Amino acid sequence: MPEGLGRVLRNLDAWHLRQRAATIALAQNWAGRMEAHMKREAPWEDRTGNARNGLFAGASFDGHTVRIRLGHTVHYGVYLELANEGRYAIIGPTRRKFEADLKRSFEELWRG
Fold first, then answer.
1. Model confidence pTM above 0.90
2. Which of 18, 34, 50, 67 has its CA 20 to 30 Å from the CA of residue 42?
3. Is residue 11 part of a domain?
């Protein structure tokens, strides 16, 4: 392999590793921001604090797909999201609130 081609391939590998690390870090940053927003803005009145404390957001990256998962740890979280015409929902509204900025940030990262 010519020396120049080897250098290009090494640089490409290094760039790919940096982009992967930046993608994971960006997803984790968004997950933290979304979790904080859900805990701060959940529209229900706390009785025990368990539902609010059990809200979570987590990021994962399998090398091809970035996922940010939002959820509840309490068994009745599904009712907060779906019952009462969604009056106590926080997951869907959080996703909608952050969706455009989140997408734009990843596009900027990869446009780079």
1. no
2. 67
3. no
